[in-house]
Amino acid sequence: MSPDTLSLAGKTALVTGSGRENGIGAAIAKAFARNGASVAIHYVSDSSRVRAQKVAADLAKEFGTKTAVVKGSVTTPDSAKSIVEQTLKGLETDHIDILINNGGGGSTTQSVLEVTPEHIDQNFGHNVFGVIYMTQAVVGVGKMPHGGRIVNIGSIASKTSSPGTTMYNAAKSAQDSLTAGIASDLGRSHGITVNSLAPGPIPTDLSKPFLTNPDGTPNPIGNNMAARSRAEDRLGTVEDMADATLLLVSEKSRWITAQWISVSGGVV
Q1: CATH homologous superfamily for 12-200+237-263?
Q2: pLDDT digits (tens, 9 = 90+) for 7-36
Q3: CA geometry: angle at 174 spanning 152 and 123, to 5°?
Q4: Which one in 40, 76, 113, 217 has a CA-CA gap of 20 to 30 Å to 252?
Q5: pLDDT of residue 268
Q6: Is the predicted pLDDT of residue 110 greater than 80, yes or no?
Q7: What are the tens digits of pLDDT across the range 160-207?
C-alpha cells in the first residue's frame, strides 16, 4: 500500500485575491501548485496585474503546473461569472474542483456612528456578496463536481470583535454563517464541502503597517498579538494558512464541512 499524501494532481483550483506574491492567496496557490493542481491566479485592479502575472509565471516555472491569470470583481454576479469563465478557458478545463474565496478585505477603522453606505457596501460586498456570487458561478458555470471543495477565508475578527473594525467584524461574522448554510445547500445535493479558515495576525501588504515596524520586527500591537498565541511566541505566516487550506481541500478532509477553523496559534 502506498503512503497517504495530500496530492492534488489532476485538480483545478481558483484562488481569488491571489495576485500579491506575499499574500495569503498567493501562498495558497503555491501550496496547490506544489501538490499538482492547476491554479488560476485572480486579481482585481490594473495596478496588481503585473504582480499577478509574476505569481502565475513563477508557479508554472517552479512546479511545472498549468496556471492562468484572471481579472474581475467578485461583488457582482456578472463579474463572478466572468472570473469563472476566464478560469475555465485559461486552464483549458471544463470544470473547477476547488474554490478559495480569499478576495475579501474592506476593513475600515471608522465607528458605527461614522461609517458610510460606501464603507458598508465595500465590507459586505467583498466578504458576503462575493462569497455568494462566486459560489453560484463555480457550481453553475464552473460545474464543480462531486468531491468539490470551497474554502472561505474568514478572520478571527468575527469572534474577537476588535474595536474600530465594526463593519469588517460584522461582514466576517455573516460570512461564517454563510459557510454553514452553503455547506448544507451543497453537501448532500452536490457532494461539495464548504468550510471557513480564519487567520489570526499575519503580516501581509495590507496588515504589515498594523503589526510590524519598518524593519519587519513586530511593533507593540504585533508583540501583543504574538503573546496571545498558545502555539509559539510569534505572528502567523502566509504558509501557516496555505498548509491549513491544503489539508481542507484534500481528499482526507472529505468528512469535514460547515466548520469555522481558527488558524491563529490558538489566539482567543
Answers
A1: NAD(P)-binding Rossmann-like Domain (3.40.50.720)
A2: 999 999 999 999 999 999 999 999 999 999
A3: 85
A4: 40
A5: 67
A6: no
A7: 877 778 888 999 999 999 999 999 999 999 999 999 999 998 988 878
Question: 83: closest CA among 145, 15, 10?
Answer: 15
For CATH 3.40.50.720, list the domain ranges present in the chain.
12-200+237-263
Q: Which class for 146: exposed (0-12), middle (13-18), buried (19 or more C-beta within 10 A)?
A: exposed
